[in-house]
UniProtKB/TrEMBL annotation:
Gene Ontology terms describing biological process: exocytosis
GO terms under cellular component: Golgi to plasma membrane transport vesicle
InterPro entries: RAB3IL/RAB3IP/Sec2, Sec2_N
UniProt similarity note: Belongs to the SEC2 family.
Protein source organism: Tetraodon nigroviridis (Spotted green pufferfish)
Protein name per its UniProtKB record: Chromosome undetermined SCAF9919, whole genome shotgun sequence
Annotated Gene3D superfamilies: 1.20.5.4880
Entry keyword set: Coiled coil
Length: 204
C-alpha cells in the first residue's frame, strides 16, 4: 500500500511539474514573440527615420544648390548692370570729349564735377550717401556726393574734391538746415539753383 501511495504521489508531482513546464514554455514563446515584435518595430522606426533624414538632406542640398545658383545669378546681374548713371555725368579728364546731346534741360557743372584733389578709396565715400539718407531733416542732401560716390566706385581714376568732402564731414557731425552752412550753401549754389535755371523762357 505504501509503495502504491508513493507512486501516486510521484505521478501527481510529475503532472504538476509538466503543467509548470508547459506554462513556462508558453510564457517563453509569448515573450520571444513580443521581443521579436518590439525589435521589428524598432528596426522599422529606425529605417523610417533614416529615410526621412535622407530625404530632408536631399531637399536641403537641392535648396542650397538653388540658392547658390540664385546668388551667382544675382552677382552676375549686379556686375553686368550699371550701378550709376555715368552717361549723364560730365566728362572727366578733358581731352575735348563731348557728352552726348540730351533733349531737354541739361544740368550745369556742380560739385559733382569738382574732382580736383587726391583720390580717395571708393569704400570710404560710400558711407556718405548712407549717412545723408539717415538724416531725416534734409532728404535731398547733395546729389553731387552720390554722383561722386557712384563714379568713384566704377572709375578708379576719378578724384573727389577734398574741400567738399571736408565740408560734408563737418555738416554730418552737426546737421543743420541753415543755408549759411558751407556745405549746404555749396549744394544750393552748385546743385539746386542750376537745376531751377532754364535757358528757355517758356519753361520758367
Amino acid at each position: 500500500m505504501s509503495v502504491r501511495k508513493e507512486l501516486l504521489l510521484k505521478d501527481e508531482e510529475c503532472e504538476r511539474l509538466s503543467k509548470v513546464r508547459d506554462q513556462l514554455g508558453q510564457e517563453l514563446e509569448e515573450l520571444t514573440a513580443s521581443l521579436f515584435q518590439e525589435a521589428h518595430k524598432m528596426v522599422h522606426e529606425a529605417n523610417t527615420k533614416q529615410a526621412t533624414a535622407e530625404k530632408q538632406l536631399r531637399e536641403a542640398l537641392g535648396k542650397i544648390d538653388v540658392l547658390q545658383a540664385e546668388v551667382q545669378a544675382l552677382k552676375t546681374l549686379v556686375l553686368s548692370s550699371p550701378t550709376s548713371p555715368v552717361g549723364e555725368l560730365p566728362s572727366v579728364g578733358g581731352g575735348g570729349v563731348k557728352t552726348p546731346f540730351r533733349k531737354g534741360h541739361s544740368r550745369n557743372k556742380s560739385t559733382s564735377s569738382a574732382i580736383l584733389g587726391t583720390q580717395p578709396d571708393p569704400s570710404a565715400t560710400q558711407p556718405i550717401v548712407r549717412e545723408c539718407r539717415e538724416v531725416g531733416g534734409f532728404r535731398g542732401v547733395s546729389k553731387a556726393v552720390q554722383a561722386e560716390t557712384s563714379l568713384g566706385a566704377n572709375c578708379c581714376h576719378v578724384q573727389v574734391d577734398n574741400q567738399l568732402f571736408s565740408d560734408f564731414k563737418t555738416w554730418k557731425e552737426e546737421p543743420v538746415l541753415d543755408r549759411s552752412c558751407c556745405f549746404l550753401e555749396r549744394v544750393y549754389r552748385e546743385d539746386i539753383y542750376p537745376c531751377l535755371t532754364f535757358s528757355k523762357s517758356e519753361v520758367r
